[in-house]
Amino acid sequence: LVGRVGVETSMRKTKSLTRSRTQAGSAVLEGALVLLPMMAIFFAMIDVPFAIFKQNTMRESVREGVRFAITQQTGAGGQDAAIQTVVENYSMGFLNDADLSSGKSTFTITYYDGATLNAVNGVGSNAQGNICVVTASVQHYWIAPVWRGTGPLVFNASSSDVMEAPPSGILPGR
Fold first, then answer.
1. 144: which DSSP letter?
2. Considering only CA atoms, which of 133, 144, 127, 131 is closest in space to residue 51?
């Protein structure tokens, strides 16, 4: 009886050693199959809210640019340059001069006649009653590996309002 217990124990050890040798690579494979989708979901949980934040920031920045524009304030470079500076300051760095000059981002200020809704240019285009439209677009590159092949996502933001009379009665230069 004593000898028989020893034989069964040694057979169990041999069987368990054989099983662990054949399944040694399975743990690595299962880990890889679980880890890759889990990392994609993790990056997506960071990336999607960041994209929404970027879109909301751009909307707020053009809204503030229009608020600044309708009050007829200006700087040394003219009213349009002052509006662009306000939008860039409120965009938290998403809209900047480097991206504008390289073509990755766009920024436009358009004035429309308040009565006919035709676009107006030049002197007097920022007169009282005209409509000021500020538009900006920025690109967002995904960090989540799932969406890499789709290219950049372009966020466009636009805001408009009716121009007020200048406080001094003299229109600022554009």
1. S
2. 144
Classify residue 59 by burial, with Cβ atoms within 10 Å: 0-12, 13-18, 19+: middle
Closest C-alpha among 53, 59, 78, 79 to residue 68? 79
How many angstroms separate the first and last alpha carbons of the chain?
A: 105
Q: What is the mean pLDDT of each run of 10 residues along the chain (174 residues)?
A: 55 57 73 85 86 95 95 84 95 95 95 94 90 95 67 91 86 81
Determine the Cα–Cα distance for residues 16 and 19; give it in Å rounded to an integer.
5
**β-pairing verdict for 131-140 and 153-162:** antiparallel
Rounded Cα distance between 81 and 79, Å, is 6
Which strands form 131-140's sheet, in the order they lie side by side?
119-120, 106-112, 131-140, 153-162
- Residue appearing with tokens 């999607």: 48
Q: Where are the beta strands (DSSP E) in the chain?
A: 106-112, 119-120, 131-140, 153-162
d(CA 142, CA 74): 37
